[in-house]
Amino acid sequence: MNIVLLSGGSGKRLWPLSNDSRSKQFIKIFKTEDDGYESMVQRVYRQIKSVDGEAVVTIATSKSQVSAIHNQLGENVGVSVEPCRRDTFPAIALAAAYLHDVQGVAEEEAVIVCPVDPYVEEDYFEALQRLGSRAGASEANLVLMGIEPTYPSAKYGYIIPVCNEEISKVSVFKEKPTEEIAREYIAEGALWNGGVFAFRLGYVLRRAHDLIDFIGYEDLYGKYDTLTKISFDYAVVEHEQNIEVMRFAGMWKDMGTWNTLTEAMESNSIGKAIMNEQCDNVHVVNELNVPVLCMGLKDVVVSASPEGILVSDKNQSSYIKPYVDEIDQQIMFAEKSWGSFQVIDIEEDSMTIKVTLNPGHGMNYHSHAHRDEIWTVVNGHGRTVVDGIECQVSAGDVVQMPAGVPHTILADTRLQVIEVQIGTDISVHDKMKMELPDTVRRK
Amino acid sequence: MNIVLLSGGSGKRLWPLSNDSRSKQFIKIFKTEDDGYESMVQRVYRQIKSVDGEAVVTIATSKSQVSAIHNQLGENVGVSVEPCRRDTFPAIALAAAYLHDVQGVAEEEAVIVCPVDPYVEEDYFEALQRLGSRAGASEANLVLMGIEPTYPSAKYGYIIPVCNEEISKVSVFKEKPTEEIAREYIAEGALWNGGVFAFRLGYVLRRAHDLIDFIGYEDLYGKYDTLTKISFDYAVVEHEQNIEVMRFAGMWKDMGTWNTLTEAMESNSIGKAIMNEQCDNVHVVNELNVPVLCMGLKDVVVSASPEGILVSDKNQSSYIKPYVDEIDQQIMFAEKSWGSFQVIDIEEDSMTIKVTLNPGHGMNYHSHAHRDEIWTVVNGHGRTVVDGIECQVSAGDVVQMPAGVPHTILADTRLQVIEVQIGTDISVHDKMKMELPDTVRRK
Q1: Nearest CA in chain A to B351
Q2: Contact A303, B309 (CB under 8 A)
Q3: Confidence of residue A135 (pLDDT cuts 50, 70, 90)
């Protein structure tokens, strides 16, 4: 099957684990069989591949997530990169053009579009396969997945089917209702709209050409920033009469808030945590290397990361976003194409960072106008290039880079470096990238 | 007046702010008039000096606290250093010998002994002055302070006076009772024992010579580790018939737990903290430079420091000690005679530390057998001595010290250094101290 996973935005609702540079789908929070942890995107990708080893998976996402995706899923996963954020219709149109023009998927083939972050079991992806088959064979232009509601939720849109067969024509869509109205919908046989659409590729390409003036993938990519923000629901689904819905009755959870996320955790804590016996329904997710001690708490989630510390009543955790929006905290941890960095100390005219480079990767060759930098290699092997001169480095080596001098570091093995930045005006914007000298081998 | 402040042990009950190297009395938690913060010891010292500018203050404490005391109170405060911990009777005996033999206090002079950490106002120290005057003039050998109880506490010992005059003979002492029995004591006119004793110096010296075989201060100091651990109450107070108690009716709080400490805080937070409107009676003390966000909590204290994070129901916070005892966390922050250090990163074969030196101070001249060290100066001016060679250093300078090479750094101004330690067996015990070459000027 062809499956497009929509990998959304910054996800501040899981602060302090998610931030502008790390979305919730990349947080390693689910226990794996070998006692490690995997992220939502890793879990979903593994489940798809286990149901259909031949599945062609394309992740539709923004530039800022591409490194994290390749770090977590490897280099083979397809990525349709959105040059900027323009909501789901432009994203799906771009992914459709990418599948057709770049991946060579035929117009008659079925494509399934699905959010990247449902917490589900494999039966969900088996259902997606059936959804794809139906989209390929049906007269309908769109086949949606309708999830059988387990309670009258006010958080989801509802689909009212014509009948209660496994596959039915759609009678009408309903926006997020109040709990009371949700109860009425459910009595009428309504299903939750899980945000999953299946269609023949040609259908969405035609709708895209109807609404956007473009030639092919390259052209659409080039003018992406000029497109209007609009959801697939508003742009396509609402105007389409010929829609079917397929029921799904298996486990399905939306991992949007700390409350729902902790429900999916297998143990009460990840990372260093101690709870006394008077704690009841407490979850701790601690990314720091010092312990969290909880005493006498009830229905509380605690999360600590290099970005900050959240202590919240579980129900209240749904209302976190405006508070996090107010936090003007510099980014303390980020995944990059070459590895990751963590800010470990900030003083008035200096900043200290731990840089971790993945084997075979290196930073861009760059210089800073307003700060000196000093690297101390703490483990691994690699090469530095400073002002065109290449040097082997390993643990204990020190490299000094005065302001203005171009430099980079290339990792032969996994490599960790303590970087001290010294200057009166330290900023992420003070960076000039340039070409690496021809004599230097990248990998 | 002569006043001896007993500065006690490690105080794990205020973890993560207090630890083996930082006792609760040194935590800067009380707002000052100029909008800074002061510690319990600073507050008490300031209050004493405000009531009696001529007061001679001696702090009886262990070696490990001497640097913190001088850092917080300056060099002029008297310190009677206990070579090891031996409970309050040996500590008071040693302080008495110190006052007599080192400070030249006469045997007829009154001395007041008081814990270093009561949360009180200046009227308390005015009462201490009256207590001292009474001890100097009275026929009684001991004059104690009796605090008028505000509730039937099971946490304190009780003193039952003979009458309800301001000064009375003591009828009997009572150990910590149950709440019910405390209620009966209070009905009989009992007072809390606040751990304050006043006496003529000669009296305690005679009791010390009765119980310990020693000549003078030097001799007692030398054999201190051979002394039996015993409290002043058991060794002296219980055997003395001729005791008076003086009432005190002012504000008096014991700062032993997070619960009582937060009651004394003027605002609900110290450090970066955000609370939503659904928070009720929540206090945050955050020493980290990232924010703590609290949502929908009630009666909770949150404290974050480089050592760890506490999230506790306020009543439960009294039971913290056994849990903290179990934490096997390396010390992440410590005050030293020359300044302080903070561990900012730990990897398998390396550790990174931020060292802050106070102006005019320097480390010991020392070497390590099993690790290399690299210093990067991030601000300030000073001098390094490496293998006997002295060098001026300032921001941006890098100094490399291979294993075995003796080194130190001396601060001319406040000086901060990022120290990277690299080795397979990094331990605080791997340190050989030696004499600084004669050619090097200490300050």
Answers
A1: A378
A2: no
A3: very high
pTM: 0.83
Query: Which two structure tokens, joined as six digits, stand for B191?
Result: 């007072």
CA dihedral for A264, A77, A48, A80, sign (positive or negative): positive
Choose the mutation target among A274, A280, A290 for the interface with B, i.e. most B CBs under 10 Å: A290
Q: CA-to-CA distance for B30 and A68, rounded, in angstroms?
A: 45
User: For testing the chain B interface, which of A293, A340, A419 should be mutated: the one with the most B CBs within 10 Å?
Assistant: A293
Mean pLDDT of A430-443: 82
Query: What type of residue is B419?
Result: E
> Of B224, B259, B231, B263, whose CA–CA distance to B97 is shortest?
B224
pLDDT in tens, B238-278: 899 999 999 999 999 877 789 888 888 888 999 999 999 99
Q: Which residue has the tokens 């340190």?
A: B431
Residue in A309, A345, A374 closest to B309 by CB: A309
| Cα gap B314→A108, rounded to integer Å | 65
Tens of pLDDT along A143-174?
A: 999 999 999 988 889 999 999 999 999 999 99
What pLDDT, on the 0 to 100 scale, is given for residue A229? Answer: 93
- Chain A CB contacts of B304 below 8 Å: 304, 309
Which one of A269, A274, A275, A313 makes the best mutation probe of the B interface by having the most chain B beta carbons within 10 Å? A313
Write the burial class of residue B406 (CB in 10 Å: 0-12 exposed, 13-18 middle, 19+ buried): buried
What would the two tokens of residue B93 be? 């005996």
Give the 3-state secondary structure of residue B64. helix
Q: Which of A272, A300, A309 lies nearest to residue B304, judging by beta carbons?
A: A309
pLDDT at A442: 66
pLDDT score, position A305: 93
Report the alpha-carbon distance of residue A398 to residue A378 in Å, rounded.
10
pLDDT of residue A142: 96
Span A366-373, average pLDDT: 96
Residue A256 backbone phi and psi in degrees, to 5: -80, -25
Q: What's the one-letter identity of residue B5?
A: L
A396 Cβ partners below 8 Å, 6+ apart? A376, A377, B372, B374, B422
Q: A316 contacts in B (CB within 8 Å)?
A: 276, 278, 295-296
Q: Burial code of B77-104, b = ≥16 C-beta within 10 A, e = fewer?
A: bbbbbbeebbbbbbbbbbbbbbbbbeee
* A293:B324 CB<8 A: yes
Q: Please tell me which residue of chain B has the smallest CA distance to A373.
A: B396
Report how far residue A236's alpha carbon sits from residue A61's, in angstroms, rounded to the nearest whole number. 20
A66 pLDDT band, cuts 50/70/90, is confident
pLDDT reading at B217 higher than 90: yes
- Judge whether residue B163 has pLDDT over 70: yes
Q: Per-residue pLDDT averaged across A20-41, rounded?
A: 84
- Assess whether pLDDT exceeds 80 at residue B435: yes
Q: Could you tell me which residues are beta bridge partners of residue A324?
A: none
Contact residues for A348 (Cβ-Cβ < 8 A; gap 6+): B379
Distance of CA A323 to the CA centre of its chain: 21
